[in-house]
Structure formats: C-alpha cells, structure tokens
Amino acid sequence: MYSCAREFKLTKVASIMSAIIYMFASYLISLVSPGHDGKIFVTSLFHLTILYVNRGFASTEFLKMFFNFSMLGMIIGLIILTPHPQMSYYSLWAISFFTLFKLITNFMKTKSVPEFLKPAMLTTYAVVIGLLLSAIQFYPGYRYTTEFSPRTDSKSGWEWATSWSLHEEEAFSMLVPEFSGVNTANKDYSRSTIYWGKNMFKDNSESVGIIGIFMALLGLFFVRKKESYFFGGLALFAFIYALGDTTPFFKIFYLLIPKVKALRAPSMIMFLFSFSIAILAGMGLQKIIDDSRSFKEKYLKQFKILLFGFPLLLFVLALLFTMDGKGMLNGWISLFYSDAPQTMVQQGISKADVAYMNLSQIQSGLWMSFLFLALTAAAIWVYQSKKAGIIILCGMLFLPVINSVRFNKRFVSKTDQEKVWSESQFTKFFTQKKEKFRVMNFVSGTIKEDFLPHFGIDVVVGYHGNQLKWYDKLLGGPSKQNQTNPHFLNLVGAKYLLLPANQGFPENYFGDKQVFQAANFGQFQVVQNNNALPRMFLVDKYQVFKDNLEIIPKVMNGQDDLSQIVYLEEQPKLTYSQDSASTDSVWASAYTTDAVTLNLSVKQNKILVLTDNYYYAWKVKIDGKPGKVLRAYGSFRAVEIPAGTKQVEFFFESERYAAGKLSTSLTALFLSIIIGFYFVSGYRRRKKKEVVA
To answer: Residues 174, 29: one domain?
Structure first.
C-alpha cells in the first residue's frame, strides 16, 4: 500500500499514512474473527492492481508498459485464486473504473487514438492473463457454482442480494466503530459490545477509522487533482452499494450490473472504500505538508472549519450521549429502527435492550474517537501555524495505529490449536474402526461440525451452502429438515450418532436392528445404529423415476427396504433376476479421496450402490473396462455389474480441471519468461550505460 501511495507522487510520510490507514482498517483486521481468509487475501492484494494500472499508463517504453500490465494480470490471477469470487468481481469493477478514468484523462491530454487504444488493449490483455492464470480454480469452480451448487437454484433475487447490507447503525459506526456493537472473537468484549443492528448478527466491522476519514476529507476538499475526485467517487460508490436496500440506489445496481442478483452481502465491497479513504488520507497529509502554511485566506478559513469543526461535532455527540445516552438511543431508534423494541434477540431481550446494554461502549467510543481526532487536528494545527516542524506530523502517524489497535483487538483472540485439534479418547473411538461409516452430529454446539472431518471421520452434515445441489435437496435444504429422518440416516450410513447424554430415540425408530449407547463422554453420548446401510452394497431390484425430486419423498416416507432396491433416473441396460438367497458380496480394497477400488464376488448381474455423492467427473472401470456411473437415490453412485465381475474402480477425472491446470501452468511459465526478460534486459541496459560512462 505504501508503494501504491508513492505511485501517486506522495512523499514517504504521506505514503506511510495511507499504508497505516489501510493496514489497520477494521475492515481488514476484523475478518480474523470469523476466519474469512479469502476476504483478507483480496484486501491484501487489491492495491497492487491500482499500482500496476497506474504504472502501465505512466510508462513511455512499450517493454515497460507491457511488463506492468503483465504484472497487473498476475495480480488479478492471484486475486481470483484467493478464492473469493465475489470480491474478485468487485476488484474487476474498480480496475475497470480506474482504467476508464485513466483512458479518458490521457485522451483529453494527448488527443491521440493510438495512445488511447494501446493501454486499453493491454488492460484487456491483463484481465485475460488473470483469468488464464487462475483457470485451475476459476474454470471448474465457475462451472460448479453455475451448474451443480444449490445456489444455482435458490441463491438469487432481491432478498438474497440485499442480505447483510450495511444499515444506518453500521453507517454511523464508520465514525464511532463501537456504535452498532459486534459479536467478537475476544471473550473479554463478549458482554459489552453485542450487535444490535438490523442484520441477524455481525462478527466484523467495516470501519476505516475516524482519523482516516478525517484525513480523507482534507484530501478530497483541498487537493485539486483528478485522482482525488476519482477516489472520492469510488469511495462514495462503494459506500452506497454496501448500504444495499437501506437506500433506493441499490435497485439501479441490482437491475443494471450483471450477476448482482446472485451476490449477497453487498457490504463486502467496503474494501474499496477502505482503499480509497487510505489514498485520500495520504493526499490530505501531503497537502498539509506542501501548502497548509501558505493557504490563501479563503482556503485557510475552510481548512480551519473542517480542522476544528469535525472534532467539535464528535465532542457534542459524546457530551449528549454522556448526559442522556438512553434518550439519544431512543431518538435513533424512533428515526431509523422502529422495529428494535419488537425484534427479539432471545426471550425477554429485544434489539433495543441490547442497544442499551451497549451504551457504555458507545459512550467510551465517542470520547475515544473525539480524543484521537482532537489530537490529530492539534498536530496539524501546530504544524500549519509553524509552531513545529514535520516531526509533529511524523508523530501523528502513531495516532491511527493506537486508535485502531484499541478497537481491533476485540476481533483477535489466541487459542492453543494443539488442544483444540488434539486426539482424544473421543476421536480414537472412531479412528480405530476399520469400516466405512458416517457420524450424525446432533451436538454441534459442543462438537463443531468440522471437528471430526479433521481426523478423517466422515460425517452426514458439514453444511457450508455450496455442496452438491442434489445432496442438498436430499438433506432438506438450508434447514436440513431431513437430518433426523430414519430412512435418510440409514441410507447415508449414519452408524453412529452424537446425542446429548440425556436424550435418545423411540424404540424401533431406525428399524428392527439394535440401537444402543456405544460410548459416553459426559455431556454427550455416542449411539450406535446397526440399521445403517453399509457404504457399498449390491441390489437386484430398481425403480426408475423421471424427475429427481420424485425420489426424495420416496426415500423419506416410502416403505421399501432401501438395502434391497435402488432408485435410478435412467433405465439400466442389463437384466436382473431377484434372488433372496444370493451370497454375492462387495468390499473395499482401497479408499482414498479421489479413487475407490472395490472387489466383488458376483454370480449374477447386480447393481452396485456406493453412497458417496455422484458427480460428472467420477468415472468407473469394471474389470479394467470403462463403465457408466448412474445416479442413485437422487444423489449417490450406482454401477451395473455383469455377473463374474471381480473389480470396480472409481476415479476422479475432471476434464475442466485438467484444462484449467494446463492453462495455469502455461500462463505461469509465460509470466516467468516476461519477468525474467524484463529484469535481464534492464540489467544489460544499466551495464551498457556504465561502460559508456
């Protein structure tokens, strides 16, 4: 970020200001709390795109221009690989806006069509390079999310697109970050800073810091440069977009910009706001360093109004909230959140009650914001009035650091990961078993859903919203309404169930076979369900359904023994004769993430069922010859097995992934050659100049 600010002709001191504002912005630091690493990566890379666009346009030699746009392509590729496609998309918006801004300003200066077309074509080239570099993930990932994810069916529309918008409470929190409250990672703040805004919950903050906004306003109002107006406009655009349905403007974005209907949480765009504020803050400090001591009377008056008026505003607000905090909150609620008293957080506690609980934090936040703003204004005034040199402005750089750390530490807590993820008698209960089974976790408040998979233990539910849509439907959608259905649990092989210690299932809930407590771990117990089907089994009965959705109620409510019949979506080619006395069998000889080898002993034609999810990239070989994978029970795999078959091999082979991997490898090689050639040629030019000298 420091290098990016330097690209806009800012001095070292001003560039450090930009770097500090961006680096310590709550938007970035608070993402540690929910573990949103993809967002952190995009935020940490984005400023490099603006740096290389600007360098590309500033280059006079074609080789240097080509190198800079190649680097732009590399950064775009890394951003897409982060992976956070939504924030990558927002990054491309900003890159396009800035490129268009540079094209227009350059054309107005040169009036040259070739000079206009050259950087325009190179920017397009950079985007193509970015897509090719990220193809190993972007190509199969894009096809997956548009064809196979549950989001292709239901994750779109106005309600979806405006979910997790910023609201009035979060907007005011840009000045006083404590205002709306937040659900924090640090337990020291868990009772004093609870979120009371209009979203369901909030575990991060979009604040960029009061000092950043103050310095950015100085940059916006007093720096007479096209760049300051551009970044002011980008900040305003990002802020209005982030507000979502809080303003009527979002309807324009919703209707005009492609894919906005399928994107949720418009507040994610606030990294562009943080970036723009950081650049403007550096510009503001640069203006103070260069010109504040020689302002004309007109500008000096406006300068002092902002310099002293903004801290005064915070002082008045702090005073009012200290004198009658509950009255101020009631005024806010009546104006912006009339539903707060009726919106219940839990029994007997409303959103309004939570706001009152946060009052002490709001009051202290207002006073702290005022204090740091006043100290910043005082440092600027001392410099502007020539009472101290630039050293006072260098000292001022510590203020946004201290203020940000003061607030942001609530989003970071330390945990001994060795203790969290260490083996125990509980995990050994499952890992010591050699068979393939799944565990249904009904105590996710005690044992997190991602805990058992860490030890290689298969589970029924690990819900993340982007699983295969046919398994999502079988599970019962986002509400997981089928997770307690005995037919479903038997089918998926849920041999073990985690239950609270004092709970159980009715007699014969799962079937005639034994269901009993296999282990007790205090707060919860492990129940063994012997009615659960094995991971792989053979059947000679089938029923074909035209519509996948017809299968789900048949599984959940039907009377068929699912171990004896398979539900398919296309007609098998072999013929099958039913034999209740059959001794045919199947067992696994190898079972890895992307390959499964099954051995068989079959005297008649059978249908092999493997209750692992069906996906187009899973291929099969039957005794070394290619076979066809059918979809069973709406979500799993089935294969027709001719009599006498000895071995079936499932293997994952995605043509899309292979094509993407090849694209990424070749593009990485191309960029390596470009970078190597650029630096070697630069070294030779320098050596040649030294020889001539």
So the answer is: yes
Q: At what angle do helices 135-147 and 113-133 cross, to 10 degrees?
A: 80
**C-alpha distances in angstroms, 108 versus 94, 101, 224, 232?**
21, 11, 17, 21
Q: How many domains does the chain have?
A: 4
* DSSP letter, residue 571: -
Q: Name every residue whose Cβ is closer than 8 Å to that of residue 106 and which is 6 or more positions away in sequence.
A: 57, 115, 116, 119
Query: Hunting for tokens 């979809």 — which residue is that?
Result: 631
Q: Which residues neighbour 110 within 8 Å (Cβ) at sequence distance 6 or greater?
A: 116
Question: Which range of residues forms the domain containing residue 379?
Answer: 2-35+156-411
Strand 585-592, strand 595-601: pairing: antiparallel
Please report the pLDDT score of residue 152 as a whole number: 67
- Residue 658 token pair: 């292979």
**What's the pLDDT score for residue 693?**
65
- Tell me, what amino acid is at 478? P
**131 and 163 share one domain:** no
What digits encode the pLDDT tens for the residues 160-178? 899 999 999 999 999 999 9
Token code pair at residue 568:
């398919």
> In this predicted model, what pLDDT tens digit does every residue of 208-243 receive, in sequence order?
999 999 999 999 999 989 999 999 999 999 999 999
- The distance from CA 105 to its chain's CA centroid, rounded to whole angstroms, is 35
Full-model pTM: 0.89
Q: What is the DSSP string of 465-483?
A: S-S-HHHHHHHTGGGTTTT
Residue whose token pair is 């074609």: 62
Q: Give the total residue count for the chain.
A: 693
Strands (E) across 242-381 are located at 344-346, 349-350
**pLDDT tens across 309-331, in order?**
999 999 999 999 999 999 999 99
DSSP-based three-state secondary structure for 146: helix
Q: Provide CB contacts within 8 A for 326, sequence distance 6+.
A: 356, 359
